[in-house]
Amino acid sequence: MTRTTSRPRRRREQDPTPSGTEDPEVLLGHYRRMLLVRRFEERAGQEYTRARIGGYCHLNLGEEATVVGLMAALEPTDYVFTSYRDHGYALARGVDPGRVMAELFGRATGVSKGWGGSMHLFDVDTRLLGGYGIVGGQIPLATGAALAVAYRQGTEVVLCHMGDGATNIGAFHESLNLASLWRLPVVYVVVNNELGMGTPVERSSAEPELHRRAAAYRMTGERVDGNDVLAVRDAARRAVERARRGEPTLLETMSGRLRGHSVVDPARYRTPAERDRLAQADPVARLRGQLLAAGVLTEQAAEALDAEVGQVVEAATEFAEHSPHPEVDTLFDHTHATPVPGETRRLPADPLFPEDQ
Amino acid sequence: MVAPAMDRTVKTASATQKLTMAKGLNMGLRAAMEADPKVLVMGEDVGKLGGVYRITDGLQKDFGEQRVLDTPLAESGIVGTAVGLAIRGFRPVCEIQFDGFVFPAFDQIVSQLAKLHFRSQGRVKMPVVIRIPFGGGIGAVEHHSESPESYFAHTAGLRVVSCSNPLDAYWMIQQAIECDDPVIFFEPKRRYHERAQEVDLSVPPQPLFSSRVLRQGSSATLVCYGPMVRTCLDAATAAAEDGIDLEVIDLRTLSPLDLDPVFASVRKTGRLIAVSEAPRESSLTAEIATRVQQECFYSLEAPVLRVTGFDTPYPPSKLEDDFLPDLDRVLHAVDRSLAW
Ligand SMILES: Cc1ncc(C[n+]2csc(CCOP(=O)(O)OP(=O)(O)O)c2C)c(N)n1
Ligand SMILES: [Mg+2]
């Protein structure tokens, strides 16, 4: 059962056809979604700089192939947990871009009614069971959701996304052990961008080939080029198939983070050479080049797609901008599921009550 | 024998300086590391990057990678390792990036750090400092704006302090490092980079575990700590325009509490408003109110009032102004106290 494969880190040279047998419509669909993530994230970055998005904002720029490839491997009935770097996953899962942008803007029409923000997207309809701001926080929860599936003998799978840094926290190891021991239908995906906040993987993980950590739990581990949407999708499919048989996987995807850790990080720790390398590996540009070369996409069609996706993002932003902020007193609505006797819900401007001491 | 922080007063012409709180902490850490080779700094991105708030800026460059350790993302591991180091005589200073990230380490803090001195019946000391940037007001969210001090103050064996100004930051961090008990050191992150203040480093610091009257007054007393000190001082300035004369006390130490100056103040003013960003239920402000009504029952002209955060999770940035106690809410409570 233990199989730990090590793929080369370097991506393959641009092959003209991503896959000879792939349906052009499917390829275009992947490309369109990657483009959507790219444009959405670029816009989110801009809106953050313009102070229309608050809090912290971590983008999936550079991870589009990974995000789209992973989500393409899932059925609508499968479940997804992610880290705080979650916008792309929501989009690729099919959540309306307007509701995602509205959440970033902190508006009542957002997926979490404006109370979650960028790091805490949550959408029950698409079974996106949350982005999580505590590094590693989602890993045991995803494991529990997989246990729930197993308990009911369901056929769904849970995909749990995390960053490379998250594999150093105890919850990661506790969860993988449980999942393997109990044969849970879960796929753990480590998106390895080779950096925590500013600390490189080699300086934080004793086994920097993170997929190999699976061996400690007799779990399948696999590494894949995260800039190759089909490679990611196919690896994820294999993992999902195993998961449906009760065999969890640790899948590691390798891709670069095109910008800083969050929008406010200028990423000064990057050398110009590194920046160049990242730009070279840009997964969106790469797929576009491949599709053009293969004749799946024409320049004209590519431009039309650009315009269309641009409009979707524009509309999402306008929707967000024109949506109302949550009413302040809804702050008190959901701290508890059941009423708390004598709970004070008074806000500063409200009339005074003697019990407010 | 390492010279105590008290003896590190600056005797040269550079004794007066302009300091921000961030700079004060950085200089304090540096002074402690220079004075005692057993002092180590550890945490996520504290070395090369100098910490997310740049509080440890330059320390790795000057003291080396052995004394300033970039750790993996593993709070429990960081604090647990610090406990082990302390057992063997080191004085580790751990940085937790934000308030909400201390909880993976909570087990090590409560189960080991707080109890080892007792458990070993004094045979091992726990001179560990855990620095935590805390509180809101920076346009952040959940996990990045919280005020978890009561959890720690509730745990016997720990000491909990919070600085409110650059000079205190400079001295208190050194005194905390020098303390043979574990100190949870809360830094009001929104005050890190506020306007630099002129400070005089030639004046010896007051003891770490003592509070301080910052402003004398006769109408009512405001007791506060950390980020709310600035807010309360501003409130006192505003109230003075209306002829209301507020006394302001900076607690500085949250565990053990040093309430004698508060009792003395309440005996004078008859009114107390306790101000804190933390949620209200079972909080430090509740402890203060209880002790004040016990000690000053016959002096009180009004019940002890509280201005606090709400008993909800911390809201997203666009709504934090509605959550955080501000000048208006403090003055509102003053009015209510005076009208009682
Ligand atoms: C428990 C905890 N500790 C620290 C942090 C602060 N922090 C946020 S993201 C991050 C780096 C995470 O890196 P990685 O897991 O590789 O994810 P990436 O951001 O690269 O996607 C750190 C240290 C946190 N959110 N939670
Ligand atoms: Mg990373």
What would you say this structure looks like, in words?
Chain A: Residues 326-336 have a biased composition (Basic and acidic residues). The complex is a heterodimer of chains A (357) and B (340). Chain A has helices at residues 24-49, 64-72, 87-92, 97-104, 138-151, 170-181, 229-244, 272-280, 283-293, 299-321; strands spanning 79-83, 128-132, 158-163, 186-192, 220-225, 249-254. The radius of gyration of chain A is 21 Å and the shape is globular. Chain A has a 6-stranded parallel β-sheet, sandwiched between helices. Chain A contains 10 helices and 6 strands, in the order ααβααβαβαββαβααα. Chain B has helices at residues 21-35, 59-63, 75-87, 106-113, 116-119, 149-153, 166-178, 228-241, 260-269, 284-295, 320-323, 327-338; strands spanning 16-19, 39-43, 68-70, 91-95, 129-134, 159-162, 183-188, 197-200, 212-215, 220-224, 246-250, 253-255, 272-275, 305-307. In chain B, the strands form 3 sheets. Chain B has a 7-stranded mixed β-sheet, sandwiched between helices. Chain B has a 5-stranded mixed β-sheet with strand order 9-11-10-13-14, sandwiched between helices. In chain B, strands 1-8 form a two-stranded antiparallel ribbon. Chain B has 12 helices and 14 strands. Chain B has 2 domains: 14-200, Rossmann fold (3-Layer(aba) Sandwich), CATH 3.40.50.970; 212-338, Rossmann fold (3-Layer(aba) Sandwich). In chain B, helix 8 (228-241) links the parallel strand 10 (220-224) and strand 11 (246-250). Classes of the chains: A alpha/beta (357), B alpha/beta (340). The interface between A and B is large, with 40 and 43 residues. The complex binds thiamine diphosphate (TPP) and magnesium ion. Thiamine diphosphate sits between chains A (83, 85, 133-135, 163-166, 193, 195-197, 261) and B (44, 73, 75, 97, 101, 104).
